[in-house]
Every structure is written in structure tokens, then in C-alpha cells.
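Sequence in, structure out.
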Amino acid sequence: MGHTERLEALADAKAIAGITDVTAQQRLLAGLFSKDNFLDILQNFILFEPVDGRLIKKVARYQQFRAVNKVIGRLKTGKDKKEKSGVIWHTQGSGKSLTMVMLAMKIRHDSELKQYKLVFVTDSTQLDEQLSTTFRDAQGETAYNANSVSELKALLNKDSSDLVTTTIQKFQDAEKEGGFTALNLGEKMIVLADEAHRTQFGNLAATINAALEKAPRIGFTGTPLLKSQKMDQAFGGYIDKYKINEAVDDGATVRILYEGREVQTEVAGESLDKLFEEYFADYSDEEKREIKKKYGVEKAVREAPARIRWVCIDLLKHYREHIQPNGFKAMIVVGSRHAATIFKKTLDELEAPPSEVIISGDHNDEQYIAQYEDSVHQKKVIQDFPKSLNENSTAFLIVKDMLLIGFDAPIAQVMYIDRKLQDHTLMQAIARVNRTYKGKACGFVVDYYGLSGLLNEALDLFTSDDVEGSYHTLKDEIPKLKACHTRAMAFLRM
């Protein structure tokens, strides 16, 4: 008896007994302990992953079990590439990477599909490394990482059912070098694309299609597709959805509270010039002209040391009052690498808890920026950041673009934002603080840039049902707090 039949049998039995509701526990028992489901979970949906020196046993959540089996069904019954393809949208923080590992496990255990080569494609080196690490830690099979075009061509041409990870940029580079010439390339391949909303539309999708025109594509995304993205043209439709409000209700993620803080950067008309004169009053006329020429007035105002000092004082007060006492950490998102160095210098001057700058490098960078670009040091900082907070550990990560996508540090409870973010990038960035952690009731986004309008614009780009519950404002919480206070006081008067 399958999962659906068992639930129907349970409902029939309850109806005969005059009981109308199926409880969550009954649903769990009926679904989990049906013979087929239970054996499937034991074989394909249990992973062992090393975490801080301990081996952690991880069992699939229901949306992971559901999505993987839907994909397997589509791959085995689809009549053509389009019918076999599709998108899995599971909200960020709900275990998307492990879903990909579990899918690979089940494919390898399937007599029909195990002969297929699995090609995992991401659009950044950071995500590629993260995915490769996840496979290495959670699954016995070796993941071959294609770090160059020649490696990618060799791995794709190899007649074997390997598991290959690479970035989509390698496909683009290969196309520039003449493309792929192997006969029947893609005949026995399945493309699994991470962050499908970026990699599987427009020119990037065309690149994959040109290289692996016969291979079905399964896209994974932590944010829904935009209304403008014609999913059916790129895929065979959604395979499975696990939306933001569902993840919060299940306790897979925590809700996000948004707060806009007052900042002295009104950037319209004369006020901008007045702010510039105020922040740079101690500079000579020549120095002011050079600053305006190099940065522009708005950027100069936003990144003025005097303004950043005001922001740092405010965010330190917020952190020390609301975040640090509970043992959590923070991320600070800034508008440029130059601004990152000013934030770091200012926090140190204010005797803030330890902070680190994580930014990309350029061989032409001046020393004041280049000093923060040591990749070995950055890697150690990123590895250590998720660990417990103490007086010597990093409390703040200062970033521009790095770590806004794919970075998983459940101990981060607050993100202080002082730069413009839009669309998918904005939605992905704020989700860095939605991971669950002991004692963490919610994540905070504290906005110093003025993103409230951009948040609404970003949400308007998606179907409203898909993004319900993306974030809540502190103003939304005040009536709830008053109601709880009233009930508590009524209890005390009894």
C-alpha cells in the first residue's frame, strides 16, 4: 500500500468511527511507516555528515522526500526532454543542497537511471565549492570538479556514470573555444542546475542547451521564478514547491523581521549637496573636487567616514542590546570594498566585538584594500564564523557581494544593510538570517540604506502567493505584543 492509499484508508477508518480530522501525528505515522515509504527512506534519504568533528545523522524532511520522488517519476516517465525537465523551488534555508544529494543517491540506486552521468551546474565558484563539499561529506561517491574547460570536456566525454560539478562559465568558455564535438553528448546525462532562476534563462540557458542539447534539466532554486521568466519555455514546469510561509510554519526556517533605521542621507536635490558639505567640511576645496570626481556626490555622502561612524554607533547599540546577549552574530552588507574598509576601521575605533572583511580581490588594489584579500585567511574566517560566539570569535562579517548567496551560518541572526540590493539578490541576501539555531526565534534585517520600497518592488516581481511571508516589519509585531500583554495581565489579575 502506497502513501496516498494508506492515508485514504486511514481517512475511511476514521469516517466509519465518526472522526472527521486526521491529526498531524496520524498523518506522519501513516505516511512514514507504509512499507514502501519506510524502506525508501532507509535506503535513499538518510545521510551522515561531519559537523564540528561529530558525525551527524540527517533524515529527509517531507518536502525533500516528496520532491526527489517527483523528479524520479518525471525522469522515468517523461516522453521527451521537456517532459523530463522541471524546477524544484524550495525556499532558502530548507535544505536544498541536501535535496540534491538525496536525489543523486536515489538515482544511483535506481536500476534504470544509475547509468546516467550527473552534471551539477552552478553560476559561482563559491556555490560550486559548497556543493562539491556537501557531496564529499554526505555521500560516498566521488564528485569530480571541473576546474577548467579541458577538465570539463574530458569528464563529459568520458563514458562513465560520474558525478560532475562545474560552473556555467566553463560551458561558456568551452563554447568560445569551439564547443563540444563528442557524438551523442548528453544522451546519458542529467543536468542538475543550482540557482536555476539565474542559470537557466536567457544566454546562460542557451549555452547549456548548445552543449548538452539532449540532456534533461532539473533546476533547483531557493527563490521563486520571476513572473517574466517563462518557465515552460526553459523547463517542463514546476516539479515541487516549498514556499517561505510553509518553511516557517514547519520550523525549517525562522521568520524575518525588517526594520528601517533613520539615516542622515536624504539623497534628493539640495539636501545631498548640503550633506556633502557637512560630511567633508574639514577637507580642502581641491580634496572635495577629487572626491566628487572619483566617487560622485551620492556615493561620497553614503560612504563618508562621518556618516559610516554614525551608522556603526547605531548598529553597535542594536547589536549589544538585542543580538549579542543571546550569543548570535551579524553580517554587515556595504556598498563597495572601499566602504568595507571604513566600516572595519570605524568598528575597531569604537572597540566593537571582533569583525572581519570578506571581499573579492583585484591585482591593482591599493594596500588599504588588498590587506583584506588573503584567500587563506578568508577561508578560515568563513569556516569559523558559524561556531559559537565568544570574546575572541568574529562577531561581524563585513561583505559587499561575497556570502550573500549560498552562505549558511545559522548563528547569524541579524543583517545590517547599507547598500542597494534588488530583485533576487535582495531576497537571497536577507535569507542569510532565516536559518534555525537554538534560541533563535527570528532573524533581523536592519536597513540603513532605505530598501523598504525596493523590497516591495522585489515582491511585486513574483507571484504574490509564492512570496507570502517573505518578511515582517516590526510595526506588524506591535499589535501582537499588545494582545499578548493584555492576555498576560488578565491572567495575573485572576
